[in-house]
Structure formats: C-alpha cells, structure tokens
Predict the structure of Homoserine dehydrogenase.
Amino acid sequence: MRTRPLKVALLGCGVVGSEVARIMTTHADDLTARIGAPVELAGVAVRRPGKVREGIDPALITTDATALVERDDIDVVVEVIGGIEPARTLITTAFAHGASVVSANKALLAEDGATLYEAAERHGRDLYFEAAVAGAIPLIRPLRESLAGDTVNRVLGIVNGTTNFILDRMDTAGAGYSEALDEATALGYAEADPTADVEGFDAAAKAAILAGIAFHTRVRLDDVHREGITEVTSADLASAQRMGCTVKLLAICERAADGRSVTARVHPAMIPLSHPLASVREAYNAVFVEAAAAGQLMFYGPGAGGSPTASAVLGDLVAVCRNKLAGATGPGESAYTRLPVSPMGDVVTRYHISLDVADKPGVLAQVAAVFAEHGVSIDTVRQKGRPDGDGEASLVVVTHRARDAALSGTVEALRKLDTVRGVASIMRVEGE
Ligand code: NDP
Ligand code: HSE
C-alpha cells in the first residue's frame, strides 16, 4: 500500500461536486483500500467562494481553477463545472500538466470530444466520463470495455431524467408542464439551463456519446436529430393512453442494416405500455443495447441527481487512480470505423398523426390518398366528430413503418388540403 496520497482537484462543487466531495470524505478508508493508496482532495474550484459548503475545508476553495489544474502535484482532475468553456481549456490544461481527468460533462463531450480524446492521448492520460450518460447507470464502461468484442447494432433508451420526470408527472398525476419542471429543478435533476433538458439538447448530447462509442465512430451533437418535449400536450398523452401507449423522450442510435452508416435521434415517441421502457418512472433512465452476439441487454437506474451521479464519478476516480498506480491508461477513443451519420429522413419507423379535418363525406378518402401517394401505408384510422358540432372532426392515423422523409412529404401535402384544418400533432411510435 502506497502511503503518499493521490491528489485530486475538484472543479465545481454544485449538485454533483458537493456529493463527490462528501463521498470522498466519508468513504476515504474504503477508497484507499480499493485503490491501494489514499486519495486527497487538494483543491476545489468554484465561482462563488463565499458560499457555505458543508464538509469542505474552506482553505481548499479557490476561484482560480486554472492555477489548480496547472499544479504539478495534481494526479486527477474531476470536472463537474459543466458547459463548454472554461471546462474544455481546464481539461486540456490538466492533461498537459500530467493529470488524468474524470468528467460528467456530456455537453462538452458531444460538442468537442475529439479535442479531449486527442489531448488525453497526446499526454498519455485517462479521460473517463461514466457520469456523462444516464447518471449512476454503468453504461459507458460496458460499451467501451465489456462489449468491445461484440458488434452493437442499436442503443435505445430514456437518457434524460428531467424530461422523464415531467412526462411521468403529466401522464400519471395530471401535473402541468411548468409545475413538473420546477419540481425536477428543485430535486437537482435539471441542467443549469433547463432548456437543455426540455428541448432535448442534453439527451442529444448523450445520444452522440453513446453512438460514437457503440459504433466506433465520431458522432457530434449536430449529427443528432433533436426534438424536445415542449410540444407534447396532455391531448397527446391522452391519445397515447387510448392506444395502450405512453409518451417518452427516447434516444435512438442505430447502425444501418447494411452496416455502412449510422443514425442518432432524440424525440418524444409513443411506446406500448407493455414495453419495459413504459414503466420507467420519475427521473429514472433505462437503456437497451442490442449487440450481434450478446442479444438484448437492458441497463436501468437513477439517471440524474447529485448522489447517483457522484457514484459514477467516484467509480471513474477509483479506476483512473488504479491506472495511475499501475503506470497504465484505460481505453481511449475508438473511432476507426468512420461510419457516416445518415440524416433523419433515412430513418424508418411508425407514426401517429393527429389531424383536424372537415367533417364531411370524402375527407377520409382524400387523406388516405395523400398517404398512398407518398408510399406511407396506414395501419389504423380513428375519426371522431366534435361534440360542439362545429363541422370539424379529429382524425388520428397510425401508419406502418415508413421512411421519415416520406412521412414529412405526406404531412406537407396534408397541410395543403382544404379539408385539413390543421395537423395537431405528429409523433413517432416505437418499441413494437
Ligand atoms: P451545478 O450548477 O450544480 O454546479 C456547477 C459548479 O461549477 C458550481 O459549484 C459552480 O460554482 C461551479 N462553477 C461554475 N462555473 C465555474 C467556473 N468558471 N470556475 C469554477 N467553478 C465554476 O451543476 P451540476 O453539479 O448539476 O452539474 C455539473 C456537471 O455534471 C454538468 O456537466 C452536468 O451536465 C453534469 N451532470 C449533472 C447531473 C445532475 O443530475 N445534476 C447528472 C449527470 C451529469 P458555484 O457553486 O460557486 O456556483
Ligand atoms: N439534466 C440531466 C437529466 C442530468 O435530467 O438527465 C443527468 O445527466
């Protein structure tokens, strides 16, 4: 057992960082035994030095994060500040000064992971980021290491706790959108700017990270088709319930059948209540991984919050410290396949389209003809006249599997029909 401690610089001491510091202190003996050397918190960089931080020696607090990561005695930098800058520069500076890095920063990894991977490799350091996707759930390491000998074809799941919490509250408790978002924020699930959650940026960043690792290629945030939950209405949820479904924000990463390209997308989707993802409640996450030899694997657990996320950070910290003592590094970037990312139009799935139409003879046939012209086959149609007898009806069409581009063309043509007063909602149907 080495007695000289490994020194850790903690960048950020908010929801996640404060829990990392707490566990490092309360579990110091166990961590020492597991790593083979003590780990010492050598400094904590924050924005507001005057804030009271329970359990943290005030002498460790600094606002000069750069000076902290430039210290030659720092072995590991834990970055839980978030955002692109200064996080990116701090991480690359840490590598240049000899430290390995543990980060929970999915936004940065999805925006510019290549810069971080390249800097880590150039300086022979570790870059670990289990906490960046799906909170406490071990997912990055299984994909990077346990499944390294298999071929992953599909990753599908709920990877944003905040939006799952909101949809769950709206669906099961009849809560309003804003009320549910406020609750998720108070519980520490939401990003500093919750727009990142509700507009799907956070889930899209995670999808980019997952797709890159799963398919051994580079996928950036901009490559991911993204739709958030702000347009999901209680009418959508009610319509889903009538179909025996619920609505979830899904991240779906797929390798094309010919293996020559991949797709990555994030959008709300209806899934049957019988599907395991339908029962994922509150801020929990769940991810299915389909691999050629392994078959279907499911990962489930708390997807957000300080303590669950700190668990993933601490797991990485232990791994990185062990590597350091062994004079080794863990796996770096694996992007050798260089598979291109296909556009959303190439995705094939099913759709639930809700239309407001004129309630008169021939309308159904007209609508059906538009679907047929675009090669989109209809599975079911439900029409309901309005109780107020205003001459309009609600028409709900569920399609068979079709290309997303064909569906977009269909909707565009439907909007031009005089008898179609409005397209109330379009939602993809997954998991059947
Ligand atoms: P918080 O906003 O709660 O904490 C951010 C911390 O960073 C604060 O301590 C803040 O200081 C500090 N900080 C901000 N800017 C600077 C700066 N320029 N220099 C030094 N310190 C700075 O965020 P979270 O803890 O929720 O999230 C941290 C990271 O973890 C993000 O990347 C997030 O995406 C990720 N993450 C979060 C999860 C969650 O459930 N919250 C789950 C998974 C990942 P001060 O305290 O003084 O304001
Ligand atoms: N805001 C994120 C979420 C935190 O709600 O899932 C976990 O990454």
In short: Residues 93 and 301 are 33 Å apart (CA to CA). Residues 135, 160-162, 189-191, 197, 202, 303-304 surround L-homoserine (ligand 2) (CB under 6 Å). Residues 306-326 form the longest helix (21 residues).
